[in-house]
Write a structure and sequence with these properties.
flat; 0% helix; five-stranded mixed sheet; single chain; mainly beta
Length: 279
């Protein structure tokens, strides 16, 4: 299927239904209750939480994403991370959000579980530890292509700690763009926002450490050629389940950039599926 610009929207075929989608989360809506999640007698038989073990522990103030996979009585599986009820047995040690993101609060140990339709997952033991940061590395370490004007670039920061482990500290560091006339960057998000054609240098710092510097050149001479939705095929989704969509833009030099949060997503049949324009 070929993807073209259509009034700044994206056209994609989903389970035989032509859907015009607008920001990223497709949700199937409908009636149904109890454990019968499809209306066809299919029930959840088990829920598996991963990672099943965290041998290196979680440092205080850092986060760790958990995922929940449900197995159904028809031998199919579905990612239900955003649909289960997450629980931390000791919120003084760590909390966990509705989307399975655990945050270390204080030194201690807690158990992480997920529950849905009366089924509870395996319990994952999570130890929260106190360690020191020794190094910060940000990526992409080299920008493979110039950044088109009007496009954002997500940077991530990995911290090396004195237990010799790497942790994602993107939301903990302070981000800096040396030339704000070229691009600004979210202080604790790592999202670089292009402003004008020029060059800047991006760094991240925390706890007295500063990362490698990444040079970014913003240009206004790229021609957009194609708008692409991923995944291009989803298959069937159980009632009340969700699936994250992504929108990419391809330019004349074959470079691609994620613009999921910049397009307008729309479903042509909201009685069957809705598409969320919120992050």
């Amino acid at each position: 299927m070929r993807h073209l610009f259509v009034n700044s929207s994206i056209v994609v075929r989903l389970v035989g239904l032509l859907v015009v989608m607008s920001l990223g989360m497709a949700s199937i809506v409908g009636s149904g209750g109890g454990e019968d999640i499809t209306g066809g007698g299919v029930t959840i038989t088990s829920i598996t939480v991963t990672p099943a073990a965290v041998p290196d522990g979680l440092p205080v103030d850092l986060t760790l994403q958990f995922t929940a996979i449900a197995e159904y009585s028809n031998n199919t599986q579905q990612d239900v991370t955003g649909s289960v009820a997450w629980t931390s047995s000791d919120t003084n040690a760590a909390t966990i959000s509705v989307v399975g993101m655990a945050t270390g609060v204080a030194v201690g140990t807690t158990n992480i579980t997920a529950t849905m339709s009366g089924v509870t997952s395996n319990a994952v033991s999570l130890e929260v530890i106190s360690i020191s940061l020794t190094k910060i590395e940000i990526s992409p370490a080299i920008m493979p292509n110039d950044l088109p004007l009007g496009i954002d670039q997500q940077f991530t920061a990995l911290g090396t700690f004195d237990n010799y482990q790497l942790y994602d500290i993107t939301n903990l560091v302070n981000w800096n763009s040396r030339n704000l006339n070229a691009a600004t960057i979210g202080l604790n998000t790592g999202v670089l926002m292009s402003v004008a054609s020029a060059t800047t240098s991006v760094t991240a710092s925390a706890f007295g450490r500063t990362s490698n510097a990444v040079s970014v050149t913003v240009v206004d001479n790229k021609t957009p050629e194609q708008l692409i939705v991923e995944p291009q095929w989803i298959g069937a989704l159980p009632v009340d389940r969700t699936r994250q969509m992504k929108a990419l833009i391809r330019y004349s030099d074959n470079s691609t950039f994620d613009i999921t949060d910049r397009v307008t997503w729309t479903s042509n049949d909201i009685a069957t599926a809705i598409v969320n324009n919120d992050t």
